[in-house]
Design goal:
Blueprint (H helix, E strand, L loop, with lengths): L2 H15 L11 E5 L4 H9 L7 E5 L3 H7 L7 E5 L8 E6 L2 E6 L3 H13 L3 E4 L2 E3 L22 E6 L6 H7 L3 H16 L4 E5 L10 H20 L2 E9 L9 E3 L5 H9 L9 E5 L8 H18 L4 E6 L8 E4 L2 E4 L12 E5 L20 H13 L4 E3 L18 H20 L6 E6 L7 H12 L5 H9 L5 H21 L3 H4 L4 H8 L11 H6 L2 H30 L8 H31 L5 H22 L8 H4 L15 H4 L2 H14 L12
Parallel strand pairs: 1-2, 1-3, 3-5, 8-9, 8-18, 9-10, 10-11, 10-12, 12-13, 13-16, 16-17, 17-18
Antiparallel strand pairs: 4-5, 6-7, 14-15
């Protein structure tokens, strides 16, 4: 024990022996709260950076106790007002301190977050909070305002079927993982969430064993901690084992009687007080419509037998293939829309994928040119006053975005366009707005925390303009306004290139399973030509490809490099971790676009029997530069223990036995494309890296 700590412990012990109550260490921000409401505030404060010098002070009358205290220079009194709506609050100036009035437990926590944000604090990444060198005085415009959410249910679906940070924290039992899961819950609350859900995995099926018991105990403790903070917790389960492609917890296998298997399998989880269940149905698969509807009803009944008050939601997925379109009740429709016919009060959650949204082009993802049907389904239910939620994505991960890697603030822009479009449609039609907005999250490094931070904040209040949100995120940072301008410009640039001009497939990767799926008539992410397709094109077709794809990739690289230069010139870029991450994200985008331009230039030139030497040199230079950027970023990740998410091999319960940044670490998708080109046009026969499993 250090000498100072030993002296303090001795002093406290002597005071206790003398009958005196131990005095807490003085702080700059004493937070006065009643004993009845103390538990969530203790947790809230425990995850604040020490530099804020905050501490909890229990008092029967917090406002009076703050007025009588001389401790600190930023005291706060939390006054519970149960007459306010859930999560609602108001911040008032009182003497030298502040009074926050809100319901408990959420309103007083949200109000405390908002007060700290008004001082310049930003709860950006689950593992890293930004605190300015000097706390600002709150803008008077943020005081004496009654705050209430625009969307009732706001949160994240942590997609732990992927080997992302929350998989390890929420499904691999250990004290360290439990603390990181609690830290994530804290981050959700501080960013105005009131709901969190994650999918169960199949490894807890079957008879009792040490692994299953440990996982269930881990789940019970996480749910208990979430409830202390005021978060409702949902659990995802998949109905049909036949469509279970990622080792999810499923309820009905081939040959099972659903009336028997559903309650039997749910019983494994019955000791855990989940608040909701999220039903899913897999991908690229359709059951008989009547059997589907009956299974959904049985799943609802099975849930309510063990969790009588639980809400049940169902994911309305995407997939416009012959096998996923069915005729039912006189209508030809997507299989996933069948959930509306279940004779149970189930809330459909309309899903979209990747950075595509309800109001624009879908790029051919899952064979959809747009998600017009999904938009119509959602808006029709809002118009009719029927329950419905929106469940888009902030990362897709598998071969598409963060593990390529690419940095894509386009996600934030599209999620804004969705919420703004739904809000406008509701105002035009004169009906209520969206009530549920729970977003599919799949990894936080390389700036993807920005996507989740943004959707949580937009659920509380959607700004008038997309740029306002980005500036709220970055402006308190040193050089933050200039950084925000670059992010807004990049998102606009990506919107034009990747969605409007359909270049998404050329920046994304494609792994071996994608090509196998295409050969069998289904696919997830947008498609692009194979190298053999370039060779088979006519000269005129290749000339068109060169104009519409190759030239635009060059323009994207050049325009992105201009934004990168602006960020690299910021004085704080080396000292501020969030700006360094932004620089690396922009830098990898530039090299990925340069690599893609060189690759497809070389392919066109080779197919035309022209010399591709210069293009291949550009390709190799971009690959080398990209690897240097990745090495720099992976040495400075936000995760304090990144080995799990970088691992080449991992013992886990997933289909993917590695960390989600594995392919990013060695640029596997880039190397794969280089090998494919050389095999196709240079007569080589190297093994093509599969970049999967």
């Amino acid at each position: 024990m250090h000498h100072a700590a030993h002296a303090l412990a001795l002093a406290l012990a002597l005071a206790a022996c003398a009958g005196e109550a131990p005095q807490p260490t003085p702080v700059s921000m004493p937070i006065f709260v009643t004993g009845a409401s103390r538990a969530p505030i203790d947790a809230f404060v425990s995850y604040l950076p020490p530099s804020l010098s905050a501490g909890v002070r229990e008092a029967d009358a917090p406002e009076a106790a703050m007025a009588a205290s001389t401790e600190g220079d930023r005291p706060v009194a939390l006054v519970v007002d149960e007459g306010r709506c859930e999560g609602c609050f108001r911040i008032e100036r009182s003497g030298r301190g502040y009074v926050i009035r809100g319901d408990a437990p959420l309103g007083i926590q949200y109000g405390l977050s908002a007060l700290l944000e008004a001082m310049g604090v930003r709860f950006l990444h689950p593992q890293r909070t930004f605190v300015p060198a000097t706390l600002a005085s709150p803008d008077p415009a943020r005081l004496d305002v009654d705050e209430a959410p625009e969307v009732a249910v706001r949160g994240l679906h942590l997609h732990i079927l992927h080997p992302i940070e929350p998989y390890f924290d929420f499904w691999e039992p250990s004290e360290e993982h439990l603390d990181d899961a609690a830290r994530t819950l804290d981050w959700l609350v501080k960013n105005r969430a009131n709901y969190v859900t994650w999918p169960a995995l199949d490894d807890v099926q079957g008879g009792p064993n040490a692994r299953r018991d440990a996982v269930l105990a881990h789940q019970r403790e996480i749910v208990a901690r979430a409830h202390v903070r005021g978060l409702r917790v949902g659990l995802g389960v998949q109905i049909f084992g036949l469509s279970n492609l990622q080792r999810a917890f499923d309820l009905v296998d081939s040959g099972d009687d659903p009336a028997v298997s559903i309650p039997a399998r749910l019983s494994v989880l019955s000791s855990i007080p989940y608040d909701a269940f999220q039903l899913s149905f897999g991908e690229f698969f359709a059951a008989d419509p009547a059997a589907f509807v009956r299974a959904v009803e049985l799943a609802y009944d099975g849930v309510h037998a063990s969790w009588p008050g639980a809400e049940v939601t169902a994911t309305v997925h995407v997939g416009n293939f012959e096998d996923t379109r069915v005729s039912y009740m006189g209508r030809e429709q997507l299989y996933y829309f069948l959930v509306q016919y279940a004779d149970r009060p189930i809330r459909p959650w309309v899903h979209t994928v990747m950075y595509y949204g309800l109001f624009g082009d879908a790029g051919g993802a899952y064979n959809h040119d747009s998600f017009t049907e999904h938009r119509g389904f959602l808006l029709d239910r809002l118009q009719a006053g029927e329950p419905v939620g929106y469940h888009p994505e902030t990362a897709y991960w598998v071969a598409f975005d963060v593990n390529v890697p690419t940095y894509l603030p386009l996600y934030v822009r599209t999620r804004f366009e969705d919420l703004d479009g739904i809000r406008s449609a509701a105002a035009t039609a004169g009906h209520g707005g969206l009530e549920d907005h729970v977003v599919f999250s799949s990894g936080w490094e390389w700036g993807y925390w920005q996507n989740d931070w943004s959707v949580l904040r937009m659920g509380w209040r959607t700004p008038a303009r997309f740029g306002d949100l980005v500036h709220d995120m970055f402006d308190p940072l040193p050089d933050g306004p200039a950084a925000a301008d670059a992010v807004v410009a990049l998102a606009d640039l990506q919107r034009d290139a990747l969605i409007d001009h359909r270049l998404a497939a050329y920046l994304a990767g494609q792994d071996g399973t994608f090509e196998l799926g295409v050969s069998r008539g289904f696919w997830a992410q947008p498609r692009r030509p194979a190298m053999s397709d370039l060779a088979a094109m006519s000269v005129t077709e290749r000339a068109t490809f060169e104009v519409e794809v190759v030239a635009r990739l060059a323009r994207l690289a050049e325009d992105s490099s201009v934004l990168l230069a602006r960020v690299e010139a910021l004085p704080a870029v080396e000292s501020e971790p969030f700006l360094a991450e932004l620089r690396d994200g922009l830098a990898i985008d530039v090299e990925r676009a340069r690599f893609a331009h060189a690759l497809w230039s070389a392919a066109v030139q080779s197919a035309d029997a022209e010399d591709a030497t210069a293009a291949l040199a550009e390709l190799d230079a971009a690959l080398a530069a990209g690897q240097a950027i990745v090495d720099r970023r992976h040495a400075a990740l936000h995760d304090p223990d990144p080995d799990e998410i970088l691992a080449e091999r991992s013992r886990n319960a997933l289909l993917y036995r590695y960390g989600y940044l594995r392919e990013a670490g060695d640029l596997c998708f880039w190397v794969r494309e280089r090998v494919q080109f050389r095999n196709a046009f240079l007569g080589e026969s190297a093994t093509v890296p599969p970049c999967v499993l």
